[in-house]
Write a structure and sequence with these properties.
The chain is an all-alpha fold and 297 residues long. It has a single domain, classed as Farnesyl Diphosphate Synthase. Helices cover 69% and strands 1% of the residues. It has a two-stranded antiparallel sheet. α4 runs antiparallel to α6 and α7 runs antiparallel to α10. The radius of gyration is 18 Å and the shape is globular.
Length: 297
């Protein structure tokens, strides 16, 4: 049986190929915009969200090919969110995935437009790509789920709360609400979109996947917060310590580093427990949960 590393690499290769095929060529006009879109999307990142799509599809008995379209859409939305988060009007970051952020490599206007275009492309392929072989009703459900994850009740809302919370002390419930939106919403969408590649999934399995996605979404953010304290720029691909310097509410700041790590481990345990209903089919999701908690970048 292939190792976890081999299976993860297989998922990464599949989504990279799909992204390359769906992104506009740099030779087509407007060339600078298309170049920027490819710059921020290709050859970067761990593809955790795409891998969650594939692993969730696998968990409900769908083939890898069924996950290509939603995995690609999720990575496009993720890339757009990073481009906009890095802008001077947001977090004003200079480094992302080990290279200059989009507004540094190009310019602020191009970065803004690249993010807008990536978001539109994500919905376009989810709506139209014939490789997604589900019914029209199921496709519509997937689009609605995806839109909610990206909007004011999801990523955009979480970012708004994050910006408004700088310099403030949040209660744990408030911090987790923010991160269930900002980080967790897209992770939840990745898992549920993977499950939606089949239309006959029992409600109990969908509920298990929902519980898994909630726990692992928060665990992902806790690990990010810990790495902001303990990580190194050469492995993170971005500058550590930025959130602390800006007075952003984080798990280590609120709970202390040891308690934050303990909370991450507890959420990891919750994620694994929720997969019991899936039996052996949830094995890759379980390994991804461990990868998310243990990663150093």
């Amino acid at each position: 049986m292939p190792s976890f590393t081999d299976r993860l690499r297989r998922f990464q290769t599949r989504v990279e190929r799909a992204l390359d095929a769906h992104l506009p060529a740099v030779t087509s006009a407007p060339q600078r915009l298309h170049e920027a879109m490819r710059y921020v999307t290709l050859d970067g990142g761990k593809r955790v969200r795409a891998s969650l799509v594939y692993a969730a599809a696998e968990a409900v008995g769908a083939p890898d090919a069924a996950g290509d379209v939603p995995a690609c859409a999720v990575e496009l939305i993720h890339a757009y969110s990073l481009v906009h988060d890095d802008l001077p009007c947001m977090d004003d970051d200079d480094l992302r995935r080990g290279k200059p952020t989009c507004h540094r490599a190009y310019d602020e206007a191009t970065a803004l437009l690249a993010g807008d275009a990536l978001q539109s492309l994500a919905f376009e392929i989810l709506a139209n790509d014939p490789a997604l072989t589900v019914s029209a009703d199921q496709r519509l459900r997937m689009i609605a789920l995806f839109a909610q994850a990206a909007g004011s009740q999801g990523m955009a809302g979480g970012q708004a709360i994050d910006l408004a919370s700088s310099g403030q002390t949040l209660a744990l419930a408030q911090l987790e609400d923010m991160h269930l939106r900002k980080t967790g919403a897209l992770i939840r969408a990745a898992v549920l979109l993977g499950a939606c590649t089949r239309e006959d999934v029992p409600p109990a399995k969908l509920a298990a996947l929902e519980a898994y996605s909630r726990a692992i979404g928060l665990a992902f953010q806790i690990t990010d917060d810990i790495l902001d304290v303990e990580g190194k720029a050469e492995t993170l691909g971005k500058n550590p310590g930025v959130d602390h310097a800006r007075g952003k509410p984080t798990y280590p700041l609120l709970l202390g580093l040891s308690a934050a790590k303990a909370r991450g481990k507890a959420l990891h345990a919750q994620a694994l427990e929720s997969l019991a209903a899936l039996g052996d089919n949830g094995a890759m999701l379980a390994e991804l949960a461990g990868f998310i908690i243990e990663r150093r970048q």
